[in-house]
Design a protein that fits this description.
Number of helices: 8
Helix content: 40-55%
Radius of gyration: 17 Å
Length: 194
């Protein structure tokens, strides 16, 4: 099980890496936000309430990739603007989360932060997932990197997500918290990049 000193080490690494990366990506990030604003005819910066460490709710930031309208689970890519699709493929829409990491809402590695109605409803041993900050990437994120494609193939994407994918992610994330190591975090970061 991850200890308090390990959580501090993890946080220190997050701050250091965020401070290194933000100056490198700031100009491309601004460019992407301008293009997203023009393409979607909305603010290029998308924010949404997510459940974080200890069940606290925070605003996650992304580059907006979807056009206006009602978006159904498993069909999100069909609503993406052309440049938005490019950003989604290479996960560049996640760049603003560097600021979530710097401000302490997120970590580079951990369980992905879910919308209200999932992580906030965890019970028993499953609640250990909430002991750490949610991540930009992590073992469950890597396993389900094609989650939209998987959901698009289902007759009932909502039910499949809740009963199959979410349940599996909980088990993966519990294992991550129980067996945390600095080496594993580096491994997941490198796997996410390459």
């Amino acid at each position: 099980m991850i200890t308090k000193s390990q959580i501090k080490l993890k946080r220190g690494f997050d701050i250091l890496l965020a401070l290194i990366l933000i100056p490198i990506v700031i100009f491309p990030l601004i460019f992407f936000l301008v293009i997203a604003t023009i393409e979607t005819k909305q603010s290029g910066l998308f924010k949404q309430k997510r459940v974080g460490q200890y069940g606290n709710v925070f605003n996650i930031y992304k580059i907006r990739t979807l056009k206006k309208g009602k978006h159904e689970l498993g069909q999100l890519d069909t609503y993406a603007a052309p440049f938005g699709k490019f950003l989604r493929v290479y996960k560049l829409d996640e760049l603003p989360q560097l600021f979530n990491v710097l401000f302490g809402d997120m970590s580079f590695v951990g369980p992905r932060p879910d919308i209200i109605g999932f992580a906030d409803e965890l019970e028993g041993e499953d609640k250990i997932i909430l002991k750490i900050k949610p991540g930009v990437t992590g073992p469950a994120t890597i396993k389900y990197k094609d989650e939209e494609t998987i959901l698009a193939l289902q007759n009932d994407p909502e039910n499949y997500n809740r009963t199959i994918i979410w349940a599996d992610k909980v088990e993966i994330n519990k294992k991550y918290v129980k067996n945390w190591s600095f080496y594993l975090d580096l491994k997941y970061i490198l796997q996410s990049i390459f």
